[in-house]
Amino acid sequence: MNHAPIHSAPVKPSERYIILDALRGFALLGIALANFPEFSLFTFLKPEAAAALPSAGTDRVARWLLYFLVDGKFYTLFSLLFGIGFSIIISNAARKGADGFRIFYRRMGLLTLIGFLHLMFIWSGDILMLYALMGMLLPLFLHASDKAVLRWALALLAIPVAIDLACEASGIYLAQPVVEAQQAACARYGITDDNFAYWLRDAQDYRGVFQFLLQGALVRVQEFVDGHRYFKVLGLFLLGFYIGRKRLYANLEQQRVRLASLCRRCLFVGLPLSAAYAWSSMNTHPLGLTAHSLLYLVSVYPLGFAYAAGLCLLYLRWKSLRLWPLLAAPGRMALTCYIGQSIVGMFLFYGIGLGWGADTGLTATEGIVLCVYVCQMLFCLAWLRLFRFGPLEWIWRMLTYGQWFPLRKTS
Questions:
Q1: DSSP string of 94-107?
Q2: Is the pTM of this model over 0.90?
Q3: Backbone angles phi, psi at 247, to 5 degrees
Q4: Cβ–Cβ under 8 Å, residues 364 and 45
Q5: DSSP one-letter code for 139
Q6: Structural Rg of the chain based on CA atoms
Q7: DSSP assignment, residue 173?
Q8: What is the pLDDT of residue 34?
Q9: Phi and psi for 246 in degrees, rounded to 5?
Q10: Distance in angstroms (rounded) separating the CA atoms of residues 292 and 280
Q11: Residue 41 DSSP label
């Protein structure tokens, strides 16, 4: 690597906005709340097995609350922040006379590799690879007008409803080839409906885990096709890009009235419709696929936007709270924390670790999430007192910029 100074460099600590890091840290908590039911294998349990757990009653309440308050809302927030980050990378590079596109595509290429390794070897619920691939499309909108960016964003968010309507009317199932490939992979390794929920708990070595991850990668593709996640992610990226382009995060005090109005309106719409979405999810979409997809559109995004606006308002009201550095620390180390959550989940719930999976109810699982997140916050605070970057962020930045960055802070 080149040790000589170059024009481009990552954002310095003095150039960071703590509200963006705090929002990212808050999003990481919600993502863990959404992901850990899969790590604990609770999501894979058959209804009768879940009903037999001692915490079955509270688990049902917890499951409803997850659909109501968590599902989709925090990945919405995380995706908005990714779009904001893109605008910052480009503007930072342009200000310093560097080739912003070269830096951006190298960054996305590395993130694609990280996501692929995460997907194939650690956890098949990875989102990083999709983020990187969709992120590569963002430069296409660099010179689009603000109105065009917003129109594209809204269209992309609405497209999944139209696709589900067409599929429901025609009887076409777009993910059928992926499902068949996944079933073939399961048959190859002896993964059946009866042992699916227990395979990872009973795995005695990594070979068994890897076999499950291979079919799990296909399940992930199926989830992306079923949920049309690529359209949703790109639409949210563009909204974040718009926010970053207007630098709304840099002038929060001037945005107070608009933030309050946005928060009120989104809560007014998002809360009752999220309750309807939770009911639909808990009861296997009784109104049909299109209605469920429409409920997702009009409930998940408004509530996710309300979370973002509400946290900004709290920050403006109580800037001196210790909460903000606590949230910002994992936000500055988001990649390390995200991958770290997967490794912790493997250790706690799989047979190659403690083997708690399939025997831990949803209520206990979410309690574990809170403990893990608190530990991550404390670790990140301690780490950032001594070091400039998180460990994975440090490696990612050096490979992106082709330059050595000192990790340890100087006196």
A1: HHTT--HHHHHHHH
A2: yes
A3: 55, 40
A4: no
A5: G
A6: 21
A7: -
A8: 96
A9: -85, -5
A10: 7
A11: T
Of 211, 232, 201, nearest to 130 by C-alpha is 232
Contact 159, 231 (CB under 8 A): yes
Both structure tokens of 114:
């990280």
Joined together, the tokens standing for residue 193 give 């409906």
Q: DSSP secondary-structure letter at 71?
A: T
Give me the pLDDT at residue 93, please.
67
With the CA atoms of 247, 376, 72 and 70 taken in that order, what torsion angle do they form, in degrees rounded to the nearest 10?
-120
> Please, where are the H alpha helices in 52-145?
56-65, 73-95, 100-121, 128-135
Q: Six-digit token pair at 231?
A: 């359209």
CB 295 within 8 A of CB 270: no
pLDDT (0 to 100) of residue 100: 72
Name the token pair of 327: 């949230």
Distance CA 201, CA 123 (A): 14
Please name the amino acid found at residue 105: Y
- Per the CB < 8 A criterion, the answer to whether 93 and 106 are in contact is no
**Under DSSP, is residue 2 helix (H, G, I), strand (E, B) or coil?**
strand
The series of mean pLDDT values per 10 residues for the chain, 411 residues long, is: 45 68 97 97 96 96 97 95 87 68 88 97 96 93 94 97 96 96 97 96 96 97 96 97 92 93 97 98 94 97 97 94 94 97 97 96 98 97 96 95 90 62
Q: Residue 96: what pLDDT?
A: 66
Residue with tokens 């930045």: 397
Block residue for tokens 């001037």: 254
| C-beta of residue 249 within 8 angstroms of C-beta of residue 84 | yes
**Would you tell me how many other CB atoms lie within 10 Å of the CB of residue 236?**
25
d(CA 263, CA 259) in angstroms, rounded, equals 6
Beta bridge partner(s), residue 408: 387
In this structure, what token pair is assigned to residue 364? 């206990």
Distance CA 341, CA 260 (A): 33
Q: Which residues on neighbouring strands pair with residue 403, listed in sequence order?
A: 2
**What is the distance between the alpha carbons of residues 150 and 134, in angstroms, rounded to a whole number?**
17
> Which residues are paired to 387 by β-bridges?
408
Phi/psi of residue 96, nearest 5 degrees: -100, 5
Token output for 169: 């009317």
